[in-house]
Amino acid sequence: MRIRAAVTDTPGGPFTVREVDLEVPRPREVLVRITAAGVCHTDLSSQAAWPAELMPMVFGHEGTGVVEAVGAAVTGITPGDHVVLTFHSCGACAQCAAGHPAYCRSMRALNASGGRADGSTPLSWGGAPVRGAFFGQSSFATHALAHERNTVRIPADLPPAVAAPLGCGVQTGAGTVLNRLRPEPGSSLVVIGAGGVGLSAVMAGVVAGCDPVVVVEPVASRRAVAVSLGAQAALDPADGDGIVAALLDLTGGGARHIVDTTSSPEMLARALGALRHRGDLVLTGIGTEVSFDVMSLLSKGVRLHGVIEGDADPARFIPELIALYRQGRFPVDRLVTTFPFEDIEAAVRGMRDGTAIKPVLVLD
To answer: Domains of the chain (ranges plus CATH)?
Structure first.
């Protein structure tokens, strides 16, 4: 079928909306008419570093929409269902079987290879391949093919702009706190970076009863949002080494949990200084190589975590986040700025210049 998609032709090149062809669903695939798609830093970092030989390429991995068709072997999903698309996983490896599909043995092949696990791509133009199946979806498009495993049914009345970010960024931040850290009420939580992932971690910390919740973020407007969402304090990293002293003071001698979304070597060094003995330091950001003073890790008994996708099982966790949103305890909508699909480059600029915390593309 003929669809419209935001295509990238060169590494780091612009997103250009144009027509492409999409295959019909294979036996376990689901055809979804996309109603909204979040823009995530992973889309931008992947686009910048994507191999030229795997271009042109369609990115997008926070899609939501309505099912239009399903493959012959699909069960539990039917045309007309409203769904969120999330990361793909095999369902058969030890990590998937244990309820940790974010660490699937086939994660890269299924999500970041420029195609399906067998190397094929569902997209083409004029008979030439257009690479796709990014995170099992490539949802910067009017329609996407997903697998039944990365398609989660949602209530039909959930606003698409709220639903879309649940598939990755919101799931990552909230899941880091609720699935991996599982903090005790009253334990201190510091979040470094108040983008979509960081503010989702803040909201999850408030839900879990963390006290205090403290944010470190350079953009003043985002610091204000963090406080409005329940953070007791929001600090500017421009204060330099004074940040460590401030965090030690606010957390009564050191934070029990610190979640970093920046992968900044400078901020991670400060985080280690602000952590109490036997505290948890969680890395969620994709960035450059960082190093740690091993003696500091050992002497403090620091527990270092690497977390992707919030260590979530989306089929279980996304409905939990929706329930919290409906209860008024997880106001995802306050992070969202919407853009028409055709204005994807404006959405990207908003993310890069800090004016949009979570840009979401909306489609008719």
So the answer is: 2-153+331-362 (3.90.180.10), 173-308 (3.40.50.720)
Residue 261 pLDDT > 80:
yes
Mention every residue, 6+ apart, whose C-beta is less than 8 A from residue 163: 36, 64, 82, 84, 154, 322
Cα distances (Å, whole numbers) of residue 17 to 21, 78, 114, 337: 13, 29, 18, 20
Mean pLDDT across the stretch 253-276? 94
Distances (CA, A) of 313 to 30, 88, 97, 142, 317: 19, 11, 11, 26, 6
**What are the backbone angles phi and psi of residue 68, rounded to the nearest 5°?**
-105, -30
Burial of 92 per CB tally in 10 Å (0-12, 13-18, 19+): exposed
Cα separation, 149 vs 306, whole angstroms: 24
Q: 81 near 66, Cβ under 8 Å? A: yes
Mean pLDDT, rounded, for 269-287: 92
- Cβ-contact 122, 132 below 8 angstroms: yes
pLDDT at 299: 87
- Cβ(173)–Cβ(204) below 8 Å: yes
Residue keyed to tokens 């989702």 = 200
CA angle 160, 166, 172 (to 5 degrees): 160
pLDDT digits over 113-147, tens only? Answer: 999 999 999 999 999 999 999 999 999 999 999 99
Q: Which residue has the tokens 């510091």?
A: 190
CB within 8 Å of 119: residues ≥ 6 apart: 113
Asked if residues 264 and 291 have their Cβ atoms less than 8 Å apart, the reply is: no
Residues near 350 by beta carbon (within 8 Å), at least 6 away in sequence: 337, 339, 356, 359
What does the alpha-carbon distance between residue 215 and residue 20 come to, in Å, rounded to a whole number? 43
**169: nearest Cα among 258, 17, 62:** 62
